[in-house]
Amino acid sequence: YFLCFSSGRSSSKRSGLHWFFCFIGVSMVQLSQNDTKSTVTSDVEQNPLLGLVAVLLSCCSSGFAGVYFEKLLKGSDISLWMRNIHLAGYGIIVGLFWGVF
Predict the structure, then answer these.
(1) Could you give the C-alpha distances from 38 to 26, 33, 43, 57, in angstroms and in order?
(2) Is the pLDDT of residue 5 over 90?
(3) SS (H, E, C) 37-95
(4) 32 in helix, strand or coil?
(5) How far is Cα 76 from Cα 34, in angstroms, rounded to an integer?
(6) How far apart are CA 51 and CA 60, in angstroms?
(7) Which residues lie closer than 8 Å to 16 by C-beta, 6 or more apart?
(8) Angle 70-9-59 (CA atoms, 0-180°, nearest 5)?
(9) How far apart are alpha carbons 72 and 58 in whole angstroms?
(10) For the whole model, what pTM was predicted?
(11) Which of 87, 80, 74, 64 lies closest to 6, judged by CA?
(12) Furthest C-alpha separation in the chain
């Protein structure tokens, strides 16, 4: 859907309906409370709703990054090698920042 938003193209209602049911199915599985006891016990309290939100945000940001990167590569006169070096520079800066702080 990020591709549709960024390029101005439209998708069919049927495709949207398929994604909606996929989302509902994954959400139901994630949020269901199993009656079976796990053999591994943990002292850490887990929040299934928070986990679902984290996974959804991760999927959305990953999808947006992929579409944005593709749009960036297709709409640029810079070669792929130079673009990779450019992005690697940003990655090194962010990595050093996280490593220090």
Answers:
(1) 21, 12, 13, 28
(2) no
(3) CCCCCCCCCCCHHHHHHHHHHHHHHHHHHHHHHHHHHHCCCCCHHHHHHHHHHHHHHHH
(4) coil
(5) 50
(6) 14
(7) 1
(8) 50
(9) 21
(10) 0.51
(11) 64
(12) 58
Cα gap 29→52, rounded to integer Å = 10
Q: What would the pLDDT profile of 27-75 be if each residue is shown by its tens digit?
A: 777 677 554 555 556 677 778 778 878 888 888 888 788 878 777 777 8
What's at 64, amino acid-wise?
A: F
Distance CA 97, CA 46 (A): 30
Kindly state the tokens that stand for 27.
């959400």
The count of residues in the chain is 101
CA distance 2 to 54: 18
Cα(77)–Cα(81) distance, integer angstroms: 12
The DSSP symbol for 36 reads S
Name the helix (H) or strand (E) containing 29.
helix 13-31
